[in-house]
Amino acid sequence: MQRHLISAADLSRDDAVHVLDTAEEMARVADRPIKKLPTLRGRTIVNLFFEDSTRTRISFEAAEKRLSADVINFSAKGSSVSKGESLKDTAQTLEAMGVDAVVIRHGASGAPYRLATSGWIDAAVINAGDGTHQHPTQALLDAFTMRRRLVGRDTGLGRDLSGKRITIVGDVLHSRVARSNVDLLHTLGAEVTLVAPPTLVPVGVETWPCEVSYDLDSTLPKSDAVMMLRVQRERMNAAFFPTEREYSRRYGLDGDRMARMPEHAIVMHPGPMVRGMEITAAVADSDRCTVVEQVANGVSIRMAVLYLLLGGNEPAVAHARTTEEK
Amino acid sequence: MDKQDKQDKRDSQGSQHAQGPQHTQGSQDPRDARQEPRESDARPVLEGPDIARVLTRIAHEIVERAKGADDVVLLGIPTRGVFLGRRLAAKLEQITDRKIPVGSLDITMYRDDLRMHPPRALARTEIPGDGIDGKLVVLVDDVLFSGRTIRAALDALNDIGRPRAVQLAVLVDRGHRELPIRADYVGKNLPTSLRETVKVQLAEEDGRDTVLLGVKQTAPGAQH
Amino acid sequence: MSKILIRGARVLGGEPQDVLIDGEVVEAVGSGLSAEGAEVVEADGKVLLPGLVDLHTHLREPGREDSETVLTGTRAAASGGFTAVFAMANTFPVADTAGVVEQVWRLGREHGYCDVQPIGAVTVGLEGRKLAELGAMHESAAGVTVFSDDGKCVDDAVMMRRALEYVKAFGGVVAQHAQEPRLTEGAQMNEGVVSAELGLGGWPAVAEESIIARDVLLAEHVGSRVHICHLSTAGSVEIVRWAKSRGIDVTAEVTPHHLLLTDELVRSYDPVYKVNPPLRTERDVHALREALADGTIDIVATDHAPHPHEDKDCEWAAAAMGMVGLETALSVVQETMVETGLLDWAGVADRMSSTPARIGRAGGHGRPVSAGEPANLTLVDTAYRGSVDPAGFASRSRNTPYAGRELPGRVTHTWLRGKATLVDGKLT
């Protein structure tokens, strides 16, 4: 794995399986009386959130604290950022305080990539969601959830998702979750189908390693997992679809549609759900829906990522070695 | 998480004990210093039947010291300590005719040298169903060297429960302790120099039972 | 003013000849001209072209002097071999009155590196609501003939029709920045395979093509001429080709960067590649080169758009659009058009000097290299190859996409009406 985690597409199959296996061990910590490991003691991690996302921030924070890291939460709202300070200045200010890693959520696609590659800072960068680009830890936790449910908790160790058929439904155009999942699930050997109204599928999707369908009903019987994406109501104002009612009639998951899925198939959602829009309450609350599990798995996945990125050599050691090789 | 890392994992689990203290100073790539002894150079100091005999003796010692081993829980330290723990448990069950709880304790996340290497792959921690509170925990490992692994294991135990007492059983004690730690049960005391390596091979992992004593290979071009 | 003898120059890439400048004009072109009383410049087989003319430059003065001024911009122009540049109207204040255009025009005259011909705004404040005083700007000392809201599209069809009609009275031309605004709301890069992957707002080719199609039809209907700025897509080429075949009075420009770079570069999220119109695909690049070669696209124009460092040293979405281009334009054209065999040097002189001068009515520029013509000349070492070093730019800004890239050709000398503005690669 590289020093940063920017895109799910950067992970090889072996990398990804290694993260999932590590997360499986991390998950066991949650069952212990003391849910804490000393592994990142003395490391400082900043959660740099330019967009509100309490769920993702809390999940990272829980993972960081379980690994004993020192955590700084920085919300761009109400800070100097809203007064025009740039991403670069903010990041450099934080690094001057001795930060080892930056977990960044930003509304601009590519902001974490810029942070990692522009020489602004030396800290490791973990993408917690950028614009409509990527959200790699979400894809990892989704894959982790699928592997547990569809392959098995213990039997899944060391294995990928070969041959599993995953359907992702909803606003693909504006979804970093969809992009990350397509990349990662393909890497893990799954067959992905995107289902959305044509207005919510990006131009250029034809090169993605997946199928695209406009028809949910014909896809459901061939799905091992169906992932519903959040659809924002505001989209209908921009004519992406006519009305909420029409959207849920054509692309929402209700009890009747769920019954068309195979017995073993699961329903996933990255949250927050818009009940009554893309998913009915009955489906959201059913046993086949993994939303709550996904949240728990998110902490394990983020622990694994943090451990694999930060648990090893300090830069000082790496520098010493570089010097010696000269 | 690259190939090097997996190499490192194998090394760290298999022959971490071969690493002398001078190599924890970052003076050279630690991976080079922990190369396994070459078969041709290595000399067996314990063979298959010796290992079985030694484990039988340790089992009897445990029963004797623990007065029947009523509350014994064996926890092997991955990788080879786990296999030794299972073998010891089987022998204890033969002796006592009782089921002996046996598990594993991965100490990776508690190591004090994490930052000197790429992140290591985690091994499984498996605590037997009744837990360890109030029990006599016997940690099982293949080689006792600096004592740092056992220090990490004691820390890890601390986060899992509160045993009545903790004891340590090792197949080989090669000396050179860096911490005030000693073993309660020792299969073989093996005086070594820091230039030597000790490599334990077990049938479960390596296809045969043997303990090899070799001379450390210095990395090509490295100055010593 | 004394005489200058340029010895052994390949005029428009032809056989080596001597060119004698006397005062502001070319006195003679021939072999073995006498050097008596003249300063001699040994051209040594370098290519001599008429001074280049850029129909699309942003000089930023007044208002954004932190990124460029008329002085620094015209020095950059002279470095790049230009003797005349057309300064776009999107300054602060906007060049929508006779006062502002005269100021810019005078600054150019005073500095003396390169003639500055201001472009007037089509609408007041570039806001698209009210026609600016086009006639007053034309009658001013600046003598404006080209009008453009560049940076913004004149998207209102009625406004565009009126502007096209109105400028007929004095032979003006409207240069359209073709960008349908509703189709490009939130657009960050070319819409296609790369934008889908990067999650950046897509800028569809049709947003450019639909406006071009509308405007050539309007120009035909009202019998006016229209110029298309920075044409960037294969589809736009097809529309212009069709319009010309119908006899519509349309001309079109392409920028050097659209002849060389593609949207694949955006994968770096480095805003140095952020530009309007956006970098397109390989297929578009090839169509643009072909069109420039066959004359469908009439000229190369730089769209030199300086920005201060901080406007590019940030995340993509927050960055300004645009690239500097005056000092690399000829090299990029040599790389993409000459070395590929698509254009010879006479063709380059046509696309970068005589035709832009004709479209913009820039008197005295883009003339043949022959006796009696104004001595606006540029000498190019076409054998040179070197990597681009922005630190050496005369422009105040460094936002070039070519930093570190190896490009051919180097302008060594530029003469503006007989006065050297660039000698051995150094500004005078």
From TrEMBL, chain A:
GO terms for cellular component: cytosol. Gene3D superfamilies: Aspartate/ornithine carbamoyltransferase. GO terms for biological process: 'de novo' pyrimidine nucleobase biosynthetic process; 'de novo' UMP biosynthetic process; amino acid metabolic process. SUPFAM superfamilies: Aspartate/ornithine carbamoyltransferase (SSF53671). Keywords: Pyrimidine biosynthesis, Transferase. InterPro entries: Asp/Orn_carbamoyltranf_P-bd (IPR006132), Asp/Orn_carbamoylTrfase (IPR006130), Asp/Orn_carbamoylTrfase_sf (IPR036901), Asp_carbamoyltransf (IPR002082), Asp_carbamoyltransf_Asp/Orn-bd (IPR006131). Catalyzes the condensation of carbamoyl phosphate and aspartate to form carbamoyl aspartate and inorganic phosphate, the committed step in the de novo pyrimidine nucleotide biosynthesis pathway. Belongs to the aspartate/ornithine carbamoyltransferase superfamily. ATCase family. This is Aspartate carbamoyltransferase. The lineage of its organism: Bacteria, Bacillati, Actinomycetota, Actinomycetes, Kitasatosporales.
From TrEMBL, chain C:
InterPro entries: DHOase (IPR004722), DHOase/Allantoinase_Hydrolase (IPR050138), DHOase_cat (IPR024403), Dihydroorotase_CS (IPR002195), Metal-dep_hydrolase_composite (IPR011059), Metal_Hydrolase (IPR032466). This is Dihydroorotase. Gene3D superfamilies: Metal-dependent hydrolases, Urease, subunit C, domain 1. Zn(2+) 2 binds at residues 150, 177, 230. CDD domains: DHOase_IIa. Keywords: Hydrolase, Metal-binding, Pyrimidine biosynthesis, Zinc. Pathway: Pyrimidine metabolism; UMP biosynthesis via de novo pathway; (S)-dihydroorotate from bicarbonate: step 3/3. Substrate binds at residues 58-60, 90, 276, 307. Binds 2 Zn(2+) ions per subunit. It comes from the Bacteria. The keyword Transmembrane does not apply. Its cofactor is Zn(2+). It catalyses: (S)-dihydroorotate + H2O = N-carbamoyl-L-aspartate + H(+). Its EC number is 3.5.2.3. One of its GO terms (biological process) is purine nucleobase catabolic process. Zn(2+) 1 binds at residues 56, 58, 150, 303. It holds the Pfam family DHOase. Catalyzes the reversible cyclization of carbamoyl aspartate to dihydroorotate. Belongs to the metallo-dependent hydrolases superfamily. DHOase family. Class I DHOase subfamily. One of its GO terms (molecular function) is dihydroorotase activity. The active site is at residue 303. GO terms for cellular component: cytoplasm. Residues 45-233 form the Dihydroorotase catalytic domain.
